[in-house]
Amino acid sequence: MRIVFEKREAVSRSASILVPVVSFLISLVLGAILLVASGVSPLVTYAAMAKGAFGTWPVFTETLVKAIPLALAGLGVSIAFRMQFWNIGAEGQLVMGGVAAAWVALFWSGFVPPALLLPAVIVVGMVAGALWAGLPALLKAYLRVDETLTTLMLNYVAILFSQHLYHGSWRDPKGYGFPGTAPFPEAAWLPRLAGRAHLGLVFALIAAALLWFILKRTRWGFELRIIGENPTAARYLGINIARNIVLALLFSGALAGLAGVCEVTGIARRLQQGLSIGYGFTAIIVAWMAQLNPIAVPFVALLMAALLVGGDQVQIMMHLPAAVGQVLQGLILIPMLAGALFTEYRLRIVRSRPGAAPASRLEEVRP
Fold first, then answer.
1. Residue 121's Cα: distance from chain center in Å?
2. pLDDT: is 3 or 258 the higher one?
């Protein structure tokens, strides 16, 4: 008898819905064990986190503020992951989008009409994020350089570059020692919808719908799915894998860059310390929890944002570290990855009977 681990020919709709739900419930149980070990009630803690994230309209808008960059970056990495391209560089692409947006807002305002300044900020920021993702894409597509390493390392290059700018040459001399640039002109501000929640929320919802349409209804989306599921079959079908890797990563980086644009034009309205706080890394959790489904990404981003905002409430009410929210994110990721694994793969036990042919009956063991 031997155990065979094989890929499913098709994933049922019920499994794609049930597995994430069960995985999330398991993560809550793991979190409860952690909270009990910390000497607090899990139910009271979860209730405090929910109240801190959704209890009133002002706190809900703050949850939306954090959900916007998570949704945009999560959509970006999900399109890369669909091709089995492990884009770990959304954080750097987000930062470069913010840097490019700041450059346009600060230095183009005297040359661009006010009505065109914000569109220019958005476009240039997205282009910067796309180009930052395009570098490892080119290395992967044509030189077979491992993308995990290159995308990860480029994060630190982008972060240090942005720090050099707002601590150095772009620093506001009237900032009273605060590290940051001068405020952007008002024409470069992203309009706010409620509280500090801004137009980036609309961008995220439009991007989710657009990405769903591309993946489900276009030839390019079909090619991306084939490359991710079976690169050998894609080659036999005549699909240009290298070109599609580059195009997909440009799209991926553009969405992460848009997240950076929204942060600097919708929240801080200047380039300053705090642009890089881990949204790009958390977006990886968002993408996997959403099963790489663009429609599910905004909702999962809202959940992850609630954990971040609710973590602050836990610190105040339960006297626990605010990092509890981040720990719970990690506890969510492990069951979700395990669930995704068993959604796409299955175990078969091959039992051999005495005198039977090698091709014996197979018995499925489904998770």
1. 22
2. 258
Q: What are phi and psi of 74, to 5 degrees?
A: -65, -40
Buried b (16+ CB within 10 A) or exposed e, 276-307: beebbbbbbbbbbbbbbbbebbbebbbbbbbb
Integer Cα distance of 81 and 132 in angstroms: 17
Sign of CA dihedral 186, 191, 195, 200: negative
CB count, 10 Å around CB of 343? Answer: 19
Q: Give the separation between CA 252 and CA 147, rounded to whole angstroms.
A: 14
pLDDT at position 262 over 60: yes
Q: Using an 8 Å Cβ cutoff, are 99 and 272 in contact?
A: no
- Per residue in 320-330, pLDDT (tens digit) is 776 776 777 67
Residue 263 burial (CB count, 10 A): 30
User: Mean pLDDT, to the nearest integer, of 115-141?
Assistant: 96
3-state secondary structure of 144: coil
DSSP string, 281-334: HHHHHHHHHTTT-TTTHHHHHHHHHHHHHHHHHHHHHT---TTHHHHHHHHHHH
- For CA atoms 101, 248, 67, 132, the dihedral sign is negative
Tens of pLDDT, residues 145-190: 999 999 999 999 999 999 999 999 999 888 767 889 999 999 999 9
Q: Quick one: which of 8, 28, 27, 29 has its CA closest to 367? A: 8
Question: Any bridge partners for residue 272, and if so which?
Answer: 180
Count the neighbouring beta carbons within 10 Å of the beta carbon of residue 33: 12
CA angle (141, 254, 333) in 5-degree steps: 80
If you count them, how many residues does the chain have?
A: 367
Residue 65 forms part of a structural domain: yes
Longest C-alpha distance within the chain, in Å?
88
Give the chain's domain count.
1
Query: CA-to-CA distance for 61 and 65, rounded, in angstroms?
Result: 6
Q: How far apart are CA 167 and CA 151, in angstroms?
A: 25
Q: Is residue 193 part of a domain?
A: yes
- pLDDT at residue 4, as a whole number: 66
Q: Has residue 302 been placed in a domain? A: no
pTM of the model: 0.87
Domain that holds residue 200: 59-297
Quick check: is 30 in a domain? no
